[in-house]
Automatic annotation (TrEMBL):
<dbReference type="GO" id="GO:0005829">
    <property type="term" value="C:cytosol"/>
</dbReference>
<dbReference type="InterPro" id="IPR011601">
    <property type="entry name" value="MurB_C"/>
</dbReference>
<comment type="similarity">
    <text>Belongs to the MurB family.</text>
</comment>
<comment type="function">
    <text>Cell wall formation.</text>
</comment>
<dbReference type="InterPro" id="IPR036635">
    <property type="entry name" value="MurB_C_sf"/>
</dbReference>
<feature type="active site">
    <location>
        <position position="287"/>
    </location>
</feature>
<dbReference type="InterPro" id="IPR006094">
    <property type="entry name" value="Oxid_FAD_bind_N"/>
</dbReference>
<dbReference type="InterPro" id="IPR016167">
    <property type="entry name" value="FAD-bd_PCMH_sub1"/>
</dbReference>
<keyword id="KW-0560">Oxidoreductase</keyword>
<dbReference type="GO" id="GO:0008762">
    <property type="term" value="F:UDP-N-acetylmuramate dehydrogenase activity"/>
</dbReference>
<dbReference type="Pfam" id="PF02873">
    <property type="entry name" value="MurB_C"/>
</dbReference>
<protein>
    <recommendedName>
        <fullName>UDP-N-acetylenolpyruvoylglucosamine reductase</fullName>
        <ecNumber>1.3.1.98</ecNumber>
    </recommendedName>
</protein>
<keyword id="KW-0963">Cytoplasm</keyword>
<keyword id="KW-0961">Cell wall biogenesis/degradation</keyword>
<dbReference type="InterPro" id="IPR036318">
    <property type="entry name" value="FAD-bd_PCMH-like_sf"/>
</dbReference>
<keyword id="KW-0132">Cell division</keyword>
<dbReference type="InterPro" id="IPR016169">
    <property type="entry name" value="FAD-bd_PCMH_sub2"/>
</dbReference>
Length: 296
């Protein structure tokens, strides 16, 4: 065991993801700082254990068999620093995106308010290039600090990071996002908070926010299509497998009635892909990230 960080074993992941499903992590670490994080990654490399970084678990489907590797939670990296006069904001990767949006709005800083209600972390948001209502987290990102697989901290300016729809450089380079810096413009705190509240209301009106899910299961199919519309067209609204069903309110959401498993979600994803392809000739690409083995 490496004394530079503490390692837990057989930690349930069910309450660490928004589907509320899945098994346990064989190893689990919640490093307090970059040194401990680096030590955890180095330990995994030395012992040939696969590792996975977990944010708020709002875009992962964790196998019911769990993960036979090391899950690294970023929950302790959670500070947000706002310099209102300069419009500069720094947020650590484990900070909640919703807290970041709230802090910016109440400080009269404009640029992130349309992302209100995305239930992920800042690091998960940068990794996924999360976005909503035609805005993306990359729109006002200034820089990101990340840790390479060999333990080196790298600061990249926005221009040196590739972002596209639900995609970022970090999906390809296996680096861990430590911190993100944003450059925002000045606005009126009350107006920005009102916009953020209205976005939240629009989410409640359109999405099944009251049930466990991971948000949109599939990416938008090009060009300019909507996965939800295709799923509805294929007659799949309300289709159920076990305790999971395609939401009647928003067809691109799969929701858990409280008894569902990850295997149910996986089977439903498969069914939706096949049915939509047969009906509309479009192969939907999952947005959700799969963790663990789904072949068993
Ligand atoms: C009700 C609901 C509504 C949603 N609405 C939206 C929406 O409007 N728009 C949208 O884009 N998404 C939406 N999502 C999906 C999800 O919230 C986003 O994808 C979010 O950015 C994921 O962040 P997370 O911290 O939960 O990441 P996780 O789910 O924990 O992880 C997702 C991926 O990011 C990686 N990751 C996490 N942290 C880091 C890090 N620090 N460094 C490197 N990699 C990291 C993980 O390894 C994993 O591959 C919604 C989800 C739910 C449940």
């Amino acid at each position: 065991m490496d004394p530079r960080f503490s390692l837990e074993q057989n930690v349930s992941l069910k309450d660490r993801c928004t589907y509320r499903t899945g098994g346990s992590a064989r190893y689990f670490a919640r490093p307090l700082n970059t040194e401990e994080l680096g030590a955890a990654v180095a330990y995994a490399a030395q012992t040939a254990i696969p590792w996975f970084v977990l944010g708020k678990g709002s875009n992962v489907l964790i196998s019911d068999a769990g993960y036979n590797g090391l899950v690294i939670s970023m929950e302790k990296f959670n500070t947000i620093a706002v310099d209102a006069p300069l419009g500069a904001v720094r947020a650590q990767a484990g900070a909640e995106l919703q807290d970041l949006v709230a802090r910016c709005c109440e400080s009269g800083l404009k640029g992130l308010e349309l992302l209100n209600g995305i239930p992920g972390s800042v690091g998960g948001g940068v990794y996924m290039n999360a976005g909503s209502f035609d805005a993306s987290i990359s729109d006002c990102l200034d820089f990101a600090v990340s840790l390479t697989a060999t333990g080196v901290c790298v600061t990249r300016q926005r221009a040196d990071i590739e972002f596209a729809y639900r995609s970022s450089t970090f999906q390809h380079n296996k680096e861990i996002v430590l911190e993100a810096g944003f450059q925002l413009t000045h606005g009126h705190a009350a107006e920005l908070s009102a916009i953020a509240r209205s976005i939240e209301q629009r989410r409640r009106d359109r999405q099944p926010c009251e049930l466990p899910s991971c948000g949109s299961v599939f990416k938008r199919p090009p060009p300019g299509g909507y996965a939800g519309a295709l799923i509805e067209q294929a007659g799949l609204k309300g289709r159920r497998i076990g305790g999971m069903r395609v939401s009647e309110k928003h067809a691109n959401f799969i929701v858990n009635d409280g008894t569902g498993s990850s295997a149910d979600v996986h089977a439903l994803i498969d069914l939706v892909q096949k049915t939509v392809f047969d009906c509309c000739g479009v192969l939907l690409e999952p947005e959700v990230i799969f963790l663990g083995d789904f072949n068993g």
